[in-house]
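Appendix B. Raw example, untouched.
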Amino acid sequence: MDLSNAQAQQISEDLVDTLNAPDCEFAVAEQIGRVVDPNLNLTQLRRELDDFATPLARRVAQLPDATGALLQEFRNAGFGAVSTAVEARHSNVHYVLHARQGIPISLAMLLLECGRRCGMQGFGINFPGHFLLSLQGLIIDPVGLDVLDSQSLQARGIGEDALQAATPVMIALRMLNNLKALHLAAQSYINALLMVDMQMAVSSGQQELTASLEYERGEYWEQLGGFSAAREAFQKCAELSSMPQLQEQARKRLQQLQGRSETWH
């Protein structure tokens, strides 16, 4: 999953361009797939998606319960198995299409795209810990392919206020966050920095989020021994943030780094 700086920059630019298109959630997921596999052939992916979704849509269109039929089609195709392992490839929709497994958000993007090809209205739901999906007004767990009724939602502690549509920017940020978490678990701070850079490109104009990402950038540079870059990031965080607590934390970290020489790891 290692990206060069040039590859990351190109994907960032393509991702930002994608965000301007209507119903672009799956296109966003395609670009995240390139982060996992820089050699991903999007033309081939789209052809394989057509081969999967087109006959499915014809079958579903003939049935009265379209949403239920779509979920059953996915079960019949081998989706619906719960996997406890989380790997980078689970964020690549090309892998998800072939392996029939992934993390909730990547599965949701595939299900949403197929639902729209069946003429359904839908959107992702950025619920913490487990991304959900709305299709035709029904709330769906994209992993188990279950429709969640009000009782199920209450059991999970999900209120109406948590069922708002996730914007494409939110989806891009979350998918990048998932990859960043894997890099951090592997102590791969250079790759974590690339994910932060891509998140900053996507979140352009969101000052408080940018401030928070600058703080993260400072932390990762500090771990690498790049203290000059860390100081610069903490300084930017303190200048951008309007949150006193974050400002104070950034200034404290900045003070701790004063006078430290570069010790690259």
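End of appendix B.
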